[in-house]
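Our consortium's second objective concerns turning raw sequence data into structural hypotheses that experimental partners can test. To show how far this objective has progressed, the report includes one record in full. It was chosen at random from the queue rather than selected for favorable results. The single chain below, 542 residues long, was entered without modification.
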Amino acid sequence: MLYLKFKKKHTKHLKITPIKTVLKFVFILPFVALLLVGCTSVAEYNQKLDKTISKEKLLADVDYVQHKLEKLHPSLYTYISKEAFNQKLDSVRMAIDKPLTSKEFFFLIGPVIASVRQGHMVLSPPFKKTEKTELSRLTKLGAGPLSQFDLEWINYKLYVVKNKSNLKGITAGAEVISINQVPPQNIYNKFRNTYSSDGYNTTYIPRGFSKRFSTYFTYEMGINDSLAYVFKQNDSLISCVIHRQVLEKKAKVKSPVTEVPKLKPVIEDKKKQRIYGYDVTTKTYSKNLSFVAKDSSIAVLKVKDFSKGKFRKGYKEIFSTLQQKEVKTLILDLRNNPGGRVAESVELYSYLTDKDFVMLQSAIVTSKTSLWKLGLFNKIPVVTYPFAAAFYPFYIGFSTLRTKKNQQGVYTYSLVGSKKRKFQSNHFSGKVYVLINGGSFSASCLLASSLKSNPNITFVGEETGGGFNATVAGLLPVLTLPNSKLPLRIGLMDVRTTNQTEVIGHGIYPDKEIIPTLSDRLENKDPEMDWILKECSSKNTQ
C-alpha cells in the first residue's frame, strides 16, 4: 500500500494517511455538501419565489435568454424572423417598468419563447419545492384529488375519460365545470400562449394541454389534499369533494405448503417487461403486438414511445413473429407517441423498407463546442455529477469527433441515422397502415416522415403535432435563468429527415383524414382503426 511521504522528523506524532483513504474522502465530500445544501435550501428557495425581483435583474434575465438562444439554438429563426423575435424581446424589456415576481415574469416572457414555435423548447413556471417530510406525508395519504381522473381537453371543454376515484357516480363523458371554483377554461386561457407545437399546426395544442392540465392547475392552486369539483353529467350539475385516496393493499394469500412455485412464467414475464418497456403506472407496454383477425393475417403494432425497453431485441422478435405467422397487413399505431430515442426510430424503419437507406441528415448545431457544457449533465440527478464528471473528457472527445463544418460553413453532428444502413432481412413486405394524430411528436414524426416516401404505406388519422421536415431536439439541456430561476429547456440539434416536403411548418398529413368525434372519444370508439379494418375486409372480398 502506498502512503504519503514525509520526512521522519515531521512524522513522529503524525498518523500517515493512505492515498486510497484520501481519495475516498475527496470523492465522498461532494455528496455530503450536496446533502447539506439540499436540507437548508428548500424554504429559502420558496421564499425567494414570492419576493419581487428588481427591474435590472429581470432585464439581465431577458438578455440571458437572448444570448443563450442565439448561441445554442440551431434553427431559432425558422418560423419567426430575427427582427420579429427581437421586437418581442424589446417589448418585454419595455413592459418591465417595476419589480416583478418570478411568476409575473414567466407570463411576460413565456409567450415570447413559445413564439419561436419549436415544440421541444419550453420555459416552465417556477414551482415551489416540497420538503421531504411533506412529500412523505402526501405519499402516505395516497393519490391526489387531481390524479383520480383521466381528463381530456376537447372542443374547449374538459371531460372525464376515466374515473379512478371512489365516487363511482361520475362516468366517462362528464364535463368538468370547475375545480375549487376555477373553470378549466381560465387555466387554458392563462397558459395557452406559453407552449407550442413544431411550426404552425394546431393539432398538438389541445393534446398538449390535456397532458399539462394537472401541472398548470397545481401551479395556480398549489398541492391540495381535497378539491371541490362541479361536474355536468346528463344535463345535471353534480357538486362533490374529492379527497386523497389511500391505495388499497391487496391481502397476501398464503399458498399451500404442498404447492410448487411456478418460477419460469415469472422470469419470462420480467424478461418481457425489460424488452418491451413495461410501464408500472399504466400497466402497459411501450411496444405491443396484437392480432385482429383469427387467421393472424392482420397485425397491430402499437408503439407508445421510443423511450422504454430494449428496442433492438424487441423489434427483432416482433418482426420474426410477423414473418412466422405470414402476416399480410400491418397497422403501425403511432398515435400519441411523443418520441424518444432517434436510434429506435431508425431501427424500426429498417424493418419497414426493402432498400438500403439513409434516414436522416447530419444534425445542424451552432458550433463545435455547443454540445460540451450542456449535454452530459442533462436529466441526471445532481448527486451523480461526480460520476458523470469522470467521463466528461471522453464525452468531449466523442462529440468533437462527430462535429464537422460542411462546405457551407455550417456545423453538423453525425447521427446514427445519417449513415447508410441496410434494411433488415426479415423486413415486412406486406401492406402497411400508419395511424397518426396531433399527439405524434418528435422521433415518431421522423419515422412517419421517412415512411411517407413509401407508396405502399397509407396514413390514417390527423396531422401530426411534430414537423415533417425536422425537429430541434437531440440534446435538451435545461438552463436556469440567473435571477428569476425559471427553467428553460432548449434543443441543441436540428434533426432533419432525408425525405423532405415543400410545405413548411406543418406535420405529416394523413392520406385518409379521420378525426374522432367527442362521442367517439368518450365511448371508447376507434373510427380510424374501424376504417382500416373495413378497408382490409373490402379488399379481401374483391
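The partners drew two points from this record. The CA atoms of residues 31 and 383 lie 6 Å apart. The longest helix spans residues 19-50. Both points have been shared with the crystallography group to help prioritize constructs.
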